[in-house]
């Protein structure tokens, strides 16, 4: 047993975008609180938050068709899209605050402007897209969205996709120029550099193995120092479990009743990447299509321009896959060891219900490169196999829980689980993910520190001027915020340079 011990106000487990965001928010709200971080890898932002492990879409529901469903009466429900867009505006405001206050520099290292587009084929899909466009474009949050079913216009917008395309089927797209590509890995590293400069104690290569509530009402963590191979004990008044896919196991170890009857199901992501400049230069957008029948919502295919480490590339995918690991750097035993007496029935119910998903994932795993190229050719008809390589992305652990819809229901969103006394919180699930980190971490703060909210509100409003308000209902504030965040984050200037 190692003899290093610490006592902190706050412990953050995991150095991904969620812990980075929560740590930064708390440091602004209560600079005097002592914060300690434990991360099992050697650096911050190396799991799902790493740029190559996610799609880098600043999810604002500008292009993702799964956020706008068609209702039985044929109208399009845009309520989820509105929610996600409002949440993304919260992130944009917080990131602008960080840049304006000099807490992070060079926003171009983590965010770039990029048109977001949806593209569909076939009469029925075109009619859906048009209805979706009409419902969204009247809303201030989606102002500037254009629709076209004219192949000549589409050739201007997406030349690579329209080249050599057989046009005997109807085709249409929407385009909005206020979309973004976000390097969440780079942002995570910037935030941890900032936290380090504020004396946050960041411990890499430290794996949290156990969490227990002490008789004094503190949380005691058993942490393995992977360099010295010793076990340390660290205590805190408040613990945030931001372990990404690793969060479920840690939540189970905490023993809180709110963590019972919850299971996890891992879905892997695989992308194809193209770095051939001749191809890359012909595309400048994120273009989202429609999910195939039977595919889970996170498998909507899209063709994206990416900006990673000052290099432009194209990414296509994701193809889903199956691995029992809960983290890309996890263990093959993750799934089986997550089954506990309290969640076994929930897991079994989900297993029986989700056979079509399991079948779909197995089919996806078995795809050959040529079969993946065929799916890519639905986007780029003349794509050549030699221009494209496979990259394995991160793991998404979907939450399984008992809901009104039945026992063992698979959830595709994000779940914040907190103890009744607010002394511990865990984040499960991964969608819409990193884009809404600021909104989700404010939810953690709200749930866990209600007694401080009155005192903290003015500072939160300084960081996020629209805090607690609907921007959709305040179009003037929306425009003001939109213009100022675009300027601070360098989104207008670069738009001009790139076009
Ligand atoms: C294929 C794919 C595509 C995605 N696309 C998008 C997208 O386009 N836009 C978007 O907004 N989001 C996207 N997401 C979701 C987004 O990546 C995640 O929501 C986000 O990165 C999660 O951040 P996190 O901090 O919770 O987890 P992570 O970034 O995974 O960080 C968790 C950290 O905890 C550490 N850890 C785990 N267990 C322990 C332990 N016991 N002890 C110490 N450390 C531990 C891990 O090593 C890791 O560094 C995507 C995800 C995937 C997988």
Automatic annotation (TrEMBL):
Enzyme class name: oxidoreductase
Catalytic reaction(s) noted: (S)-malate + a quinone = a quinol + oxaloacetate
Matches recorded under InterPro entries: FAD/NAD-bd_sf, MQO
Cross-referenced Pfam families: Mqo
GO terms, biological process: tricarboxylic acid cycle
Entry keyword set: FAD, Flavoprotein, Oxidoreductase, Tricarboxylic acid cycle
EC number: 1.1.5.4
Pathway annotation: Carbohydrate metabolism; tricarboxylic acid cycle; oxaloacetate from (S)-malate (quinone route): step 1/1
GO molecular function, one term: (S)-2-hydroxyglutarate dehydrogenase activity
Ribosomal protein keyword on record: no
Cofactor: FAD
Entry similarity comment: Belongs to the MQO family.
Name this protein carries in UniProt: Probable malate:quinone oxidoreductase
Underlying gene: mqo
């Amino acid at each position: 047993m190692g003899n290093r011990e610490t006592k902190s106000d706050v412990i953050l487990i995991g150095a991904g975008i969620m812990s980075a965001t929560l740590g930064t928010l708390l440091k602004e709200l209560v600079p005097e609180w002592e914060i300690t971080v434990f991360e099992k890898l050697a650096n911050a932002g190396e799991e799902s938050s790493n740029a190559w492990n996610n799609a880098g879409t600043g999810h604002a529901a500008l292009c993702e068709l799964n956020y706008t469903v068609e209702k039985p009466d044929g109208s399009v429900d845009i309520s989820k899209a509105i929610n996600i867009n409002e949440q993304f505006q919260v992130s944009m405001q917080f990131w602008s605050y960080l840049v304006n206050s000099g807490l992070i520099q060079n926003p171009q290292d983590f965010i770039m402007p990029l048109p977001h587009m949806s593209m569909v084929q076939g009469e029925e899909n075109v009619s859906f897209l048009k209805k979706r466009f009409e419902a969204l474009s009247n809303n201030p949050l989606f102002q500037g969205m254009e629709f076209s079913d004219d192949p000549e216009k589409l050739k201007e917008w997406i030349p690579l996709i329209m080249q050599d395309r057989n046009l005997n089927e109807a085709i249409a797209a929407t385009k909005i120029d206020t979309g973004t590509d976000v390097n969440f890995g780079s942002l995570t590293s910037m935030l941890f550099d900032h936290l380090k400069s504020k004396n946050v104690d960041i411990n890499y290569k430290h794996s949290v193995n156990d969490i227990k509530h002490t008789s004094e009402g503190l949380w005691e963590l058993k942490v393995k120092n992977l360099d010295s191979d010793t076990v340390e004990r660290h205590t805190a008044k408040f613990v945030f479990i931001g372990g990404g896919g690793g969060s479920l196991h840690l939540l189970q170890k905490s023993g809180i009743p709110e963590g019972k009857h919850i299971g996890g199901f891992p879905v892997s992501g695989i992308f194809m990447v193209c770095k051939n400049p001749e191809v890359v230069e012909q595309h400048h957008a994120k273009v989202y299509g429609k999910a195939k029948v039977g595919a889970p919502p996170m498998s909507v295919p899209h063709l994206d321009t990416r900006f990673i480490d000052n290099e432009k590339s194209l990414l296509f995918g994701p193809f889903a896959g199956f691995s029992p690991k809960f983290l890309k750097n996890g263990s093959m035993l993750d799934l089986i060891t997550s089954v506990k007496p309290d969640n076994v029935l929930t897991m079994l119910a989900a297993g029986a219900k989700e056979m079509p998903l399991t079948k779909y994932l197995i089919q996806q795993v078995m795809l050959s490169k040529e079969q993946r190229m065929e799916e890519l050719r639905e986007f780029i008809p003349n794509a050549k196999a030699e221009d494209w390589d496979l990259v394995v992305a991160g793991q998404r652990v979907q939450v399984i829980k008992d809901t009104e819809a039945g026992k063992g229901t698979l959830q595709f969103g994000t779940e914040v689980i907190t103890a009744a006394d607010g002394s511990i919180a865990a984040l499960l699930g991964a969608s819409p993910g990193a884009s809404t980190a600021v909104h989700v971490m404010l939810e953690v703060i709200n749930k866990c520190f209600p007694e401080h909210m009155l005192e903290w509100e003015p500072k939160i409003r300084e960081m996020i001027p629209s805090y607690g308000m609907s921007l959709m209902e305040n179009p003037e504030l929306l425009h003001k915020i939109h213009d100022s965040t675009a300027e601070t984050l360098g989104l207008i200037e670069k738009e001009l340079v790139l076009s």
